Every structure is written in C-alpha cells, then in structure tokens.
Amino acid sequence: MDYESTSFELLGDNNNRTEEESCDYAEPVFVKERFWMVAIFGTAVCIINIIENTFLSVMLFKKKSYRSSHMLYLALLAFFDVWMAIAYIPLMSLNLFVDYYQSVVLLRAWFAYMLPMITVSHIAMTASSFLMVAASLERYVITCHPTKTRYLQKNRVWIAAFSIMMGVTCKFSQLFEMDIKHSEKCVDTMREYQLSLSSLALHEVYSYWRVLFRTIVTILIPFFLLAFINVRIVLVLSKNEFKVLQSAKLSDAKRKSAVRNATRTLVFVVFTYLLSNVLNVIIILWEYIDMELLTQQFETFYMFAVDVVSLSTIVFGALRLPIYVICQTNLRKEFAAQLKNMLSFNSYSGYLYSPSKNMTIEDMDSDRRTPADPTPKQYPILLSLGSVLLVESDEKNETTCKVIRQTSRLDFSDMSEKVQIV
Q1: Do 367 and 319 reside in the same domain of the chain?
Q2: Is residue 258 within 8 Å of residue 168, measured between CB atoms?
Q3: Rounded to an integer, what distance in angstroms lies between the CA atom of residue 84 and that of residue 366?
Q4: Edge-to-edge strand order for the sheet containing 388-392?
C-alpha cells in the first residue's frame, strides 16, 4: 500500500488486467497463501489498529496540555494510522477476496473506489513520515541542544501543519495517474475492468516527478534521515544517562527523566517505522538497479514483498499504543483510568460502601430542625450517592444512619430519614 512505484499495478494484479486482447483470466499464483496473510490476518490487525489508534487520538487530542506539547505529533500519527488501517481493508483485503472468490461484483466495487482510496492512504502515509521527521528533529534538539528549542516548540503547530501539507502536495496527483478502462466485450468476466497509466503519468516531465522526485523525497530521504537522527539521539541518551542519575536536585532529575522517557517513546515509534519500511527501500533500490531481474527471476519474492510492506505498516501502527504505555508512566495511568471509566457500568460515580452489611429504611417520618435548635455537630463521615448523602451517626450506641437529601447546590434541607442498621 505504501510501495510507490508498483502499488497501483500490484493492487490491480497487472499481470491479469493490463492485456486488452483477451478476456481470459489467469488466477494469480499463491492466491490462497496471500489471501490468508493479507485478507484474514491483515484485516484482523487492521481492526485492532483502528480501535487502538482511535482511542489514542481521542485521548491525546482532548487535552489542551497534550495538544500544546510534543504529544501533538503522536496524536496526529495516531489519527493518520486510523486512516491507513481503514484504507487497507478495502484496498488490500478486498483485492484478495476478488481473486480468491473470482467475484465480478467485488471487482466492480473495488474499481469504484480504488483511485480515491489509495490516494488518501498515500497522503496519510507520507504525512506520517514527515511528522516523524519533524518530531525527531525536535527531540534531537531537546536532547543535544536543550537551549535552542524555543523556536521549534513555539512553532510546533505550524511545523505539523506544514508536514501534512507536504504529504498532500506530494501525493494528491496520484488520483490522476491511472486510467480505469471498461471493456464491453469482457462484461461479466474478471477482465471487465483494466488498469493502465494515464497520459499524465506517461508524460516524460511528469515521470521524473512521479518516479524520481517523489520516491526520493517521500520515502528515501525520510527513511535515512530518521535513521541518522535517532541513532544520534540514542548515543546522546546513553552518554548522558549517568549524569542524569547523579543529578543533585530531585526535581531536576524527574524533569530530565520525563524528557528522556518522551524521547525514548519517539525513538521506539521511529524504530518501528524504519522496520516497516526497510524492505520497501530495498525493493525500490533494486528496481532502479535491475528491474528485469526482480520481476522475472524473483517474481514470487517481489509479489510477497509488496504484501509484507503493506502489512507491516499496519502491524507496526498497532504497536504504537503498547509503546506509549510501556515507555511513559503518566500516559499508562491516564489511559488505564480512562479505559476503566469506559468499561464501568456504575452510574453512581464516587459511591463508597458503608461498613454495615445491610440497611433498610424503616422509619419514613421526618424530624425537622427549627432555627432555635443548636447547630448540629459536624458529621464524621459523608458518603455520596447521587443526590443523596448517607450520614453515619455520631453517637456510639446509636444504630441509625440519617439520610439527607440535597435541595440546592449550597445547602441541605432539614428533611432527614432514619435508616435502621440491621
């Protein structure tokens, strides 16, 4: 799905759909193995990815303190991960369903949304790459040159917006690079639609943009730049670890520890990105060196490699939430509390159980206090239950518990009920 030079052809199984002379359909090789790997396993991972990153993006976006900190990059990464996972199912999984079941209905559906869907997915992936570069540069400056971080932190929102716009600028033209042709003589067959490069994509000048510039700028440069920056960060962290541990001030040590944990979080995130793209970079370089060798003698490897590249993007995207939970204690506690609230069905938030085993309301008569009555003693224990307060008696031998109902925000009524402790 993020494989620049062959994504359209392989998504459409170009070996079966680029020839217009015949309506004969040849089933792709290893379709059963690819079906289980991409359509079944890939879809399951996508569902996990969508759930995790939706939860993560909501948690990070809803707090202003996160939106105004380096967490903004992580929130945006989670947001784009959701879009990539959503796009994977109709693009990759359904494509294998089409070949596995040889369904003309699914084939028509796939071609109906393929071009806009793959454009959106590529924009999301490219924007994510640039966001990681921006986040890594900020972490590098914080780690290596902590006195020069003001500009990056002050303009973080604009830098993130620029990264997203770069992703849109580099990839929006993919929508116009392919032509879908409908063959009248092959109606109701698996060759009813055929995919080919558009006249724009075949233009000599545009081909330099499509193949060279875009591949270098959106894949190769981010990959090697992220690798270099994060190696430098790891080296600096390991070098300064002993100094941080010997910090004289506890507050200073805690602050540096928090910065170090945030940096390690980003390093792990970038490391998973590099792992998911290393095969992609190898294949791209191999294409430029010897395309014929790759597509003929290593055809099977080539086919599975493209599937693995797309699948690894989704798998490592699903690992972001576990990375945040492991590396940052504050996020782990906050996520656990939020998850507990989401899964809790108790509508009486804050209710505490009384030491008594059973309570019954036996006497419903009310005892009113007059203004002349002396001010009652402070109740020792107040237990909140919705709009009702349970008040434990302050008399040692008293076996009742008063129930006071709230009538306003500021005070309570004189009305009380005796609750017999059984």
Answers
A1: no
A2: no
A3: 64
A4: 359-363, 412-421, 400-406, 388-392, 382-385
Number of domains in the chain: 2
| Helix H or strand E encompassing 136 | helix 104-144
Q: What is the dihedral of CA 225, 175, 303, 26, to 10 degrees?
A: -170
CA dihedral defined by 231, 263, 332, 246, rounded to 10 degrees?
110
Question: In this structure, is residue 42 part of a structural domain?
Answer: yes
Residue 387 has a pLDDT of: 44
One-letter identity of residue 319: L
Burial letters for 68-92: b for 16+ Cβ neighbours within 10 Å, e otherwise? Answer: ebbbbbbbbbbbbbbbbbbbbbbbb
CB 57 within 8 A of CB 82: yes
Domain identity same for 19 and 138: yes
Q: Is 94 exposed, middle or buried (0-12, 13-18, 19+ CB in 10 A)?
A: buried
Look-up: residue for tokens 């596995």?
100
C-alpha 404/C-alpha 401 separation (Å) is 10
Cα dihedral 381→386→388→393 (10° resolution): -20
Q: Is residue 194 part of a domain?
A: yes
Residue type, 51: I
Kindly report the length of the chain. 422
Same domain, 326 and 235: yes
Which residue's entry shows tokens 């932190």? 153
State how beta strands 178-182 and 193-197 pair. antiparallel
* pLDDT tier at 57, thresholds 50, 70, 90: very high
pLDDT, one tens digit per residue, over 182-212 is: 888 888 888 889 888 899 888 888 888 888 8
Cα(10)–Cα(6) distance, integer angstroms: 6
**Locus of tokens 């998850």:** 339
Q: Which tens digit of pLDDT belongs to each residue from 36-55?
A: 999 999 999 999 999 999 99
- What DSSP string runs through 311-346? HHHHHHHTTHHHHHHHH-HHHHHHHHHHHHHHH---
Residue 8 pLDDT more than 60?
no
What's residue 11's pLDDT?
42
What mean pLDDT do residues 150-179 have?
Answer: 92
Range of the domain at 364: 359-421
